[in-house]
Design goal:
It is a single chain. By secondary structure, the chain is α/β, with parallel strands linked by helices. About 40% of the residues lie in helices and about 15% in strands. It has helices at about 20-35, 60-65, 80-85, 95-105, 135-155, and strands at about 10-15, 40-45, 90, 110-115. A 4-stranded parallel beta sheet has the order 2-1-3-4, sandwiched between helices. α4 (about 95-105) links the parallel β3 and β4 (about 110-115). α1 crosses α5 (about 135-155) and α2 crosses α5. The longest helix has 23 residues, at about 135-155. The two termini are about 10 Å apart.
Length: about 160
């Protein structure tokens, strides 16, 4: 449900909320700010798991973000049931996390995969770079940036 002041709520979700979803949050906010429309959105990120609650994003994703002048301001948190009412769009990085949220009661109509918004992605899921090298973080940056741009355009055009 849209926040009462008319802002659009967007929650990005991955497994631990220290790699993919905080990067998506930072990129979406940066792209919205570039367009002068950041005030129209309430944006956050969370993880389906609680392993990293309270931690900063992974150092490797912070490094990639800093190279591209993207701010990652949040700390890891776990998705709560309140998020299902608070956010209009729950944008998942992969099928596994989308399925976990559906089993927890998130409205199917609010759940989407991020890469569904970018037909040029060539894949449906943002791969988890956590157990790989630094190159994986640059790859997810490119995928997430392109998809966040497309998501922003879709939401501004009033498409779900």
């Amino acid at each position: 449900m849209t926040v009462s002041d008319g802002t659009i709520g967007v929650l990005f979700v991955c497994m631990g909320n220290i790699c993919r979803s905080p990067l998506a949050e930072g990129l979406f906010l940066a792209r919205a700010a570039q367009r002068g429309v950041a005030h129209r959105f309430e944006v956050d990120s969370a993880g389906t798991g609680a392993w990293h609650v309270g931690e900063q994003p992974d150092a490797r994703v912070r490094e990639v973000a800093a190279r591209h002048n993207i701010i990652l301001a949040g700390r890891a948190r776990q998705v709560s049931r309140d998020d299902f009412d608070r956010f209009d769009h729950i944008i998942c990085m992969d099928e596994d996390n989308r399925d976990r949220l559906a089993r927890r009661g998130a409205p199917e109509s609010n759940l989407r995969l991020l890469l569904e918004f970018d037909p040029t992605a060539g894949t449906r899921e943002v791969p988890d770079p956590y157990f790989g090298g630094s190159q994986g973080f640059e790859i997810i940056y490119e995928l997430i940036d392109s998809a966040c741009r497309a998501l922003l355009e879709s939401l501004l055009a009033g498409r779900p």
